[in-house]
Amino acid sequence: MAIEKTNRINALFDFYEPLLTPKQMTYIGLYYRDDYSLGEIAENYEVSRQAVYDNIRRTEKILEEYESKLHLYRNFQLQSEELDNLLKYVEENYAYDKELLTRINRLESLEE
After folding, report:
1. Which one of 1.10.260.40, 1.10.760.10, 3.40.50.300, 1.10.10.10 gives the CATH number of domain 3-70?
2. What is the pLDDT of residues 72-108, one digit of tens each?
């Protein structure tokens, strides 16, 4: 499993988890966040490995569909990048303005 895909699915899961069913949340969380194998999940929930695989693949598609419609993750990435650029600019050009730096730091803390 490619690390980029794992990171993307985890990020999408962070944004869209409340929109998933309990089973989808459980399987995708165990597989991507907790690094369980398909076999381990299947054994724990007394279902076939194929059933787990199908559920995870279907959930991945659902997460990608949510993102294609809502763009929450993409917008978060763009906002984070712009905030980083702003902070860098302010530190380079307005380092003496402590109030400005404080306000930017407050914005950064809202992302967490």
Report:
1. 1.10.10.10
2. 999 999 999 999 999 899 989 998 999 998 998 898 8
What is the structure's pLDDT at 101?
87
Q: CA-CA distance, 39 to 45, in Å (whole number)?
A: 10
pLDDT at 112: 65
Neighbours of 28 (CB within 10 A): 24
d(CA 15, CA 45) in angstroms, rounded, equals 25
The rounded distance, in Å, linking the Cα atoms of 16 and 5 is: 16
Count of CA atoms in the C-beta half-sphere (13 A) of 15: 23
